[in-house]
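re: ur question from yesterday

yeah so i grabbed the chain u mentioned. its 799 aa long if i counted rite. heres the sequnce exactly as i have it in my notes:
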Amino acid sequence: MKKLLVVLLFLALLPLSLFAQFSVEGTIKEAKSKETLAGANIKLLNTFNGCNSNKKGEYLISNLQKGNYILEVSFLGYETQQKKIYLSKNTVVNFVLEEKAILADEVIISATRASETTPTTFKNIDKSEIEKINLGQDIPFILKNTPSVIVTSDAGAGIGYTGIRIRGTDMTRINVTLNGIPLNDPESHGVWFVNMPDFASSIENMQIQRGVGTSTNGAAAFGASINIQTNSLRDKPYTEINNSFGSFNTLKNSISAGTGLIDDKWAFNTRLSKIYSDGFIDRAFSDLKSFFVSATYYGNNSMLKLNIFSGKEKTYQAWSGVPKSVLQTNRTYNPYTYENETDNYQQDHFQLIYSKKINKNFSLNSAIHYTHGEGYYEQFKDDESFTDYQLDTIFFGFDTVSMLFLDTIAKTDLIRQKWLRNDFYGFTWSLNYDNHKNVKAIIGGGGNKYVGDHFGKIIWTKYSNNLPKDYQWYSNTGVKTAFNIFAKINYQLLEKVNVFGDMQYRKIDYKINGIHDDLHDLTMEKDYNFFNPKLGVFCKLNKNQNIYFSFAVANREPNRGNFRDADLGEIPQSEQLLDYELGHSFNSTKFRLNSNIFYMDYKNQLVLTGEINNVGEAIMTNIPESYRQGIEISADAKFTKILSWSGNVTFSQNKILDFTSYVDDWDHWGHQISNDIGKTDISFSPNIIAGNQFSFEIIDKFFIRWNTKYVSDQYIDNTSSESRKLDAYVINDFQIEYSLSTEFIKEIVLTLMVNNAFNEEYETNAWVYRYYLNNKHHEMNGYFPQAGINFLAGVNLKF
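ran it thru and got these structure tokens back, copy pasting raw so excuse formatting
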């Protein structure tokens, strides 16, 4: 089955034979000065054909068949124009673009985005693509069909705690920005989209850059970056009511509205959402609430935007997974039974963004931001030692003769809460230059500070110990400041050749004071100074083909967990990635093919080896050499008016060159058994990831879509053991969508999604702990099974 799937994908990716003979060409100028515009984006709508104007403002699209087309030209800061044309011979179509009366919202993210001539590997996802599948699942599941992506869900249904891996890289190594503002938690480096329920409803577009990508703000991209832009201006007032329901008592209710442009100066947008789901796993419910408010003032060549958004989540814990021995009999098993074994967290975001077009060539972007988060997860723990919580043993039954206590209580059942209260604030800025001929340059950066308070409370004990109110048994504070500055230039060296340079300096100061929950002292301080250069070249081979090459360096500091778990006096080293990307694209009217080869060379990558610290906690260890290499291919085809297809496949090898594993020896406590394995596979890095979609437009605005996702075997630790892996899986999803209009409602969109239609039993994540007892090997483990066949149905009303 696996081999057949790979063969079919290769056959599907073969270019189509097209018989075309006509061309359309012309010049792009600006209305005021009549000067030509280089780098304008020209598209033939409903085809895969397009190009950018050269430094003389000229464009040419050739190899076109006879017929009707819509030609669209766009350029940042200018009004987009469309012209209908009929091709029966070579045709000249010129455009004169008017400057926009107001500054475009897209300028906000221009400093951190890759463009069509940037030599890096990226994928754009626009609002229309997001809306098709946005029925309440988290953002990782919105992206699940993009190249090299694997998603996972603790609750098994895509709502609640979810994760994403890109090229085998997890969320802690993926840089995420929101309107150019860092979203990753500075201490843990992670992003938890559960704290931003239904945020997909407030997104205008996203760009995924695979590999190191271009310089951006926040943590280093060690496998990919995700750049998100929130809703941009809609000229007219609107209201949308979006409701969906589905399996596992899933229910989403969302209402959004906007004023459109008021007096050519003001615009207001808002959204209010609530999502609930019981989850596939027992008791793994999610109760999620969020809102988004945006106010924008458009001045003369300037824009001031205020975004305020918040998310509040309560989820029942499903973090432990299902033991491997239970998977065959009870795939929904959850070991937690305490009624309030929940995670509770609220995160509030404030963004104030200012953009200014200084003159024809220069523009300025700047932003200040503040995020406050606060919450806890609650746990029932049985038979815990008082001394582990800095509490005294209970003595009772005093014997006056012996002057001794007759009995003691040293352990108790208890309920505890682990709290996090954090504040994150800072600024970003960029100065952009475009001479509209052959040079685009950016200088930018940002600075921020993070303060995270970690503490634990005991709210109940079985045996009274004169517990003070709000008793805390541990407390520590992490403080992190970061500063970065970058400079980028894209220079059109020759008519068909662009060269790209990008340099970034990043400085990080991080310190922790206090004790951890196991009472060991975390106090430490560490500074880092990183230089991250990037170089590349983009070449237009002919009218339909482009090629690029890039080399990029990224340096990454260890996260809080790496410092927290290290032995006293031991400091984990920073990691470095050297990323080489070679890409090719082919575009024609009915077919598009993108392919790229990557080699990601890691120095001192932090991985789990089984080693433990002096209190028995697993630690991540720097390994000298490891790499990821592979080829990514994606293609799109329009076979007929009613049938289109898209697909992607990644073939990769992901290796550690010299690996030693460690296993605890319970027969000799404190001792570990080591095993020199040598070259081995990096965990959670399958060799093949493939996606496929057929789209049928049966009648006007009535679509049926069939999505297939294949993921090959992947190991759950770094030993390449066949007994510790996730089996390969193929899942198929079907979607039906129908749109109609009425006299009173602008558009009604009805959607039905059937996920995992063939009821595949599969797991997407796992953990394992190994030990020897009585000279025999044992394991504790947890696997995360995903839901079998399930559905989501939605009704979206647009007014």
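noticed a couple things. The chain has a mean pLDDT of 92. also The longest strand covers residues 362-385.
anyway ttyl
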